[in-house]
Amino acid sequence: MGSLLIESGRISMTERDMVAATAFDLRQYAATRRDLVERTLDTLVAGKEPAQLWESMRYSLLSGGKRMRALLCLAAAEAVSEHKDAAQSGLASLPCACAIEMVHAMSLIHDDLPCMDNDDFRRGQPTNHKQFGEAMALLAGDALLVLANEILIRNTPNTVQAEILLDVVAELNRAIGPEGMVGGQVADSISTGLITMPTGSQSSVSPELLESIHKRKTGALLRFSVWSGARLMAAQDHVLTSLARYGEILGLAFQIADDLLDVTGDIKTLGKTPGKDQAAGKLTWVSLYGIKGSQEQLQKLCIEGESLLNETALTPQAVAPLRALLDFAINRTS
Ligand code: GRG
């Protein structure tokens, strides 16, 4: 169980919950699922023509990363699976987990471009455009986005009802479209002046706007990751509602932790340049609420997350990976 949860001491957990949660080994759980995701992604982008495009896609997609979104999708699917071998039946969500990582990789490629964040390093290596040039980086991102949709539609096993799959495809696109990631990126870019507003309508960033940017830019895909895993396993409505909210909580916590890492992290561990937000005078959770205030907010989100997991009425064993992943999102160092 994570330090924040234990330190808070305010969570009502039964003794059984505590034992299940502390006994859970996220490292081992994540290692097996990451291995599966890495191997599947590798085959999904196996070299084709034009070779340079696939090389550029592989360069970013297979460059590591925590695979947080894939793990969340698989963990949610396993949590709601009624079968004995949850890991096995949760595999119906593997194509979705891989599609999410493709979308995530494309968003990082585009985010690093000179016209956006203009970053030189990502995941401990030169960014895609530094390696392949801007035009190829743009197109590799486009290709990953489109391939993600194809993989989700074609590779999801037919044990998943067509109606559910259609819902998942629609939700993925909503999560990353104008109401989600792209909308959040645009609102963020307007707030920093990267995208200029028509004369006279300069926006100022309120705490509410900052939270709304986080929810869309980072949170929507993380929310989708949890929701989709459960939806693909035909979870009941009340479980879906609680897990979708859990994904939102996790998304916000993830971004607050990201803002904290920009202040406290180092380039070697982070794999990207820290201090960029601060140097740009960007409004972040830390600049608004300070380090302590941000950590307190993380504690509150942990508590809310815990009660959402309880609301699902799933067993403590079933939700242990999801609980541990929230803890990881908060206490991570990269
Ligand atoms: C989706 C069509 C479409 C366009 C993308 C550029 C853009 C529009 C959006 C930017 C979204 C973005 C990059 C948000 C930041 C999210 C974030 C905190 C990334 C870091 O995630 P980690 O820590 O990275 O999970 P790893 O490397 O571990 O995968």
The fraction of residues in strands falls at under 5%
Beta-strand segment tally: 2
Percentage of helical residues?
over 70%
The major beta sheet can be summarized as: 2 strands, antiparallel
Task: Describe, in plain words, how this protein is organized in 3D.
By secondary structure, the protein is mainly alpha-helical. It is built from 17 helices and 2 strands. Strands 1-2 form a two-stranded antiparallel sheet. Helix 4 (51-61) packs across helix 9 and helix 5 (68-80) runs antiparallel to helix 17. The longest helix has 28 residues, at 237-264. Geranylgeranyl diphosphate (GRG) is lined by residues 65-66, 68, 104, 107-108, 110-111, 116, 123, 145, 176, 181-182, 185, 217-218, 258.
Question: Keywords, please?
Answer:
334 residues; disordered N terminus; mainly alpha; binds geranylgeranyl diphosphate; two-stranded antiparallel ribbon
Summarize the structure.
The protein has 334 residues and is mainly alpha-helical. The chain has helices spanning 3-8, 15-23, 26-44, 51-61, 68-80, 86-89, 94-112, 128-132, 134-155, 162-176, 181-192, 207-232, 237-264, 267-270, 276-279, 285-312, 316-331; strands spanning 121-122, 125-126.
Task: Outline the secondary-structure elements.
Layout: H1 3-8, H2 15-23, H3 26-44, H4 51-61, H5 68-80, H6 86-89, H7 94-112, E1 121-122, E2 125-126, H8 128-132, H9 134-155, H10 162-176, H11 181-192, H12 207-232, H13 237-264, H14 267-270, H15 276-279, H16 285-312, H17 316-331
Antiparallel strand pairs: 1-2
The protein binds geranylgeranyl diphosphate.
